């Protein structure tokens, strides 16, 4: 079984919030798009297109989501600025304070008590987001990542990518993207030379010195931060916590993107774009 690799470039058209926990009244955002977020957006679009928008049960989304797991592999997506006809990625770990100054902003809001025409006490909150334009020069921001397609793939993911909305606060119009490139790779270089893809029939293998996705800490010695990777799901078949977003699933204890390994290593891409040390 062979894989075909594609580079995807999305134009960010509105603020994007990728949840990263809460500090005080601030809902933080990650400075990149996780594989779970991309998988969720793609699964939602495939399901709604495949059911003419009539999907009302989590099992329908689960069916399409499993097809994505089985027939595609994908990376995380990182902000980039167009330069000389290409899309060089802006890595947040090179200078995090400068990256935040250029790419991240926040929005403040609160609930209102309408009879009193006043703010509802204790409900002021601030939501961070990746800005669709840089905060210094107003340059357009893009998101760059990769999708690997199995030779026998029957998932119509390319059409689905034409109308994706990713991340949180989507009811306010956040997370709107426009696909500007789905291009087959001409070589094995990924992420501006930060990683290389290796031919493998069973799984997609990435060779890198720095992990560019959440990476399982099992048997991996690295330098960086570790966090438990969890996500909220809709599992209508469960007896409790069965409504959208109520079920909390634990993926793994992972090194965060940007962590470095002692020497160049091979990693297999698993579900939700999570990397695992290849044995």
Briefly, what is this?
The chain has four helices and 20 strands. The chain has helices spanning 35-50, 58-71, 96-103, 157-160, and strands at 3-12, 19-23, 26-29, 72-74, 78-80, 104-109, 112-113, 118-119, 125-130, 142-150, 177-184, 189-190, 195-198, 205-210, 215-216, 222-223, 226-233, 247-255, 260-269, 275-277.
* Shape, principal axes of CA atoms: globular
- DSSP helix count? 4
Beta-strand percentage range: 35-45%
Q: Can you count the beta strands?
A: 20
Question: What does the main sheet amount to?
Answer: 6 strands, antiparallel
Structural class: alpha+beta
General description of the model:
By secondary structure, this protein is an alpha+beta fold. The protein has helices at 35-50, 58-71, 96-103, 157-160; strands at residues 3-12, 19-23, 26-29, 72-74, 78-80, 104-109, 112-113, 118-119, 125-130, 142-150, 177-184, 189-190, 195-198, 205-210, 215-216, 222-223, 226-233, 247-255, 260-269, 275-277. It is 15% helix and 37% strand. A hairpin with a 5-residue loop joins β19 (260-269) and β20 (275-277). α1 (35-50) crosses α2 (58-71). The chain is globular, with a radius of gyration of 19 Å.
């Amino acid at each position: 079984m062979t894989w075909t690799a594609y580079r995807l470039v999305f134009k960010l058209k509105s603020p994007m919030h990728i949840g990263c926990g809460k500090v005080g009244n601030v809902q933080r955002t990650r400075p990149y798009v996780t594989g779970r977020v991309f998988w969720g957006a793609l699964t939602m679009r495939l399901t709604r297109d495949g059911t003419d928008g009539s999907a009302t049960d989590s099992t329908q989304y689960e069916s399409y989501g499993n097809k994505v797991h089985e027939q595609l592999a994908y990376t995380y997506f990182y902000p980039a600025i167009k330069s000389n006809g290409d899309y060089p990625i802006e890595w947040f770990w090179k200078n995090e304070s400068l990256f935040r100054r250029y790419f991240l902003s926040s929005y403040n809001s609160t609930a209102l008590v309408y009879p009193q025409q006043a703010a509802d006490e204790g409900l002021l909150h601030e939501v961070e987001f990746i800005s669709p334009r840089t905060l210094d020069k107003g340059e357009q921001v893009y998101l760059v990542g990769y999708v690997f397609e199995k030779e026998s793939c029957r998932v119509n993911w390319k059409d689905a990518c034409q109308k994706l909305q990713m991340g949180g606060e989507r009811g306010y119009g956040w997370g709107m993207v426009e696909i500007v490139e789905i291009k087959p790779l001409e070589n094995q270089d990924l992420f501006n030379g930060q990683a290389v893809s290796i031919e493998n029939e069973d799984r997609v293998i990435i060779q890198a010195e720095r992990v560019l996705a959440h990476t399982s800490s099992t048997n991996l010695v690295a330098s960086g931060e570790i966090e438990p990777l969890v996500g909220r799901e809709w599992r209508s078949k469960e007896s409790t916590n069965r409504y959208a977003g109520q079920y909390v699933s634990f993926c793994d204890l992972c090194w965060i993107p940007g962590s470095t390994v002692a020497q160049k290593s091979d990693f297999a891409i698993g579900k939700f774009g999570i990397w695992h040390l290849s044995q």
